[in-house]
What does this fold into?
Amino acid sequence: MDYKQYIANKIKIENVGAEEIMSAIALPPNSDMGDYALPCFKFAKILRKSPVAIAEELKNNFATDDVISEVSAVNGYLNFKVNKSGLADSVLNRILNEGDSYGSSREGAGKTICIDYSSVNIAKPFHIGHLSTTVIGGALYKIYKFLGYNVVGINHLGDYGTQFGKLISAYKRWGDREEVQKGGIHAINDLYVRFNTEADEKMESEAREYFRLIESGDKEANELFEWFKELTLEYVNQIYKKLNITFDSYAGERFYTDKMQPIIDELKAKNLLKESEGAQIVDLEPYGMSPCLILRSDGASLYATRDLAAAVYRKNTYDFYKCLYVVAYQQNLHFKQVFKVLELMGKEWAKDLVHVAYGMVSLEDGAMSTRKGKVVWLEDVINKCIEKASAIINEKNPDLVNKEETANLVGIGAVIFGALYNNKIKDIVFSYDKVLSFEGETSVYVQYTCARANSVLSKREGGYKIPQNYSPNAQESEVIKALAAFPATVEDAAEKYEPSCVARYAVDLAQKFNKFYIECKILTAEGDAADFRLCLTKATLVTLKNALTLLGIGVPEKM
It folds into this structure.
């Protein structure tokens, strides 16, 4: 049962719908106050009454029943206590019946959401700065799928620009095909870094010429470019596989080369394109923004030009309900400009474009730069986490079966969870000590809780069932309420584009379960208490697995 919906449907407030009431219902900070609370402050202006008076009036008109056992009005809050026996029965039945689909819904049925994320650059290795966009986008992809949406994951490859001319120039000067093939992406990157270190004006001019040859269809230049692209995708797909990331489209910047002119023509036809110092712009000063540059003075396109073409293409191809761009907050202005230009072009769907901004990742001694070679490779972070996990497992449980598989699940989970646990907009100063920490609010803690639950369930001989009319104690009730909150948590994460909602939920549920585990006997309990606690343990395991799966994190059976 959705208790928030149930409560909202029973409350009548003039000129306020049930959906608005439901969205306002929250969990009280202190469970002694109640299981749910409705703050009445937002209704004061509508009803022209004090929140205290509104809460008291609503309490008097709310009839308690076998679902809501008690209602109280305290300082402008309307507090509800749920029939604990009924809640426990409802929640456990739902989880144990639905299993790995618990928390899912069909709210997105018939709607498509496009998510532009990761968007790696061809010929550049995956560094730690790519982690956030990749795992945030990957988690949102899974969350929306879980809620019934048709989701299109798009890797908008960085495969356009003079850097590819630089790479060809570097390869023809210093490269060896056999060595580059063997060294893969890192050999390519070494050539790129060397070019930027040694380049003079002659080499820069040569690079621009090679890029022109790529654009004009030169056979040799394009064969080299495609080879670099092949080596890049071969490399990044290995990392995507480890991180449980999938894409449905790899249409990058180059894909839109022949799709920009219609956009430029439309801007001209609608008198939106203006000349400024030889360049072509859309004036956004009336809207509090600097001009959106469409074409440079030499006629070359820019990121905005290609993003405009990409947005129109995605709408025409997928008819999306929303199109998300998981890109660092440094691009806030860029996306505001692109979205505004589309709005000025008369694209009503411009309102459905969302920039999901996130904070940057940097080294402790400064920002990263691929051009200078000062980076932390993501593969190195993953491998170090796996090595550390393996060492801990060997120390704590040397006889564990499938140690290598478990170390992979734990190490990779730590990397993903580390990027998803905090609010996505926060900057991260990368530190091995933090990333490799296996204590505190981490995926390792949640995974260990799952292993603990598995261990308990494996020791029970015979079946167990949900007892009728069982009245849970305080620790059991806390776990039940946390379990009941999972579907709403998933919806909240989708609404806010914030996977950290699910990550924090997983830690909170694990903490409540572990408190219950310590304070309540499970295997040595008797009668209904034994059955109930085993069902509660199974439901917790199912829900934690579902939460971690949405984040792209696997769960070992034993640790």
In short: The first helix runs from residue 3 to 10.
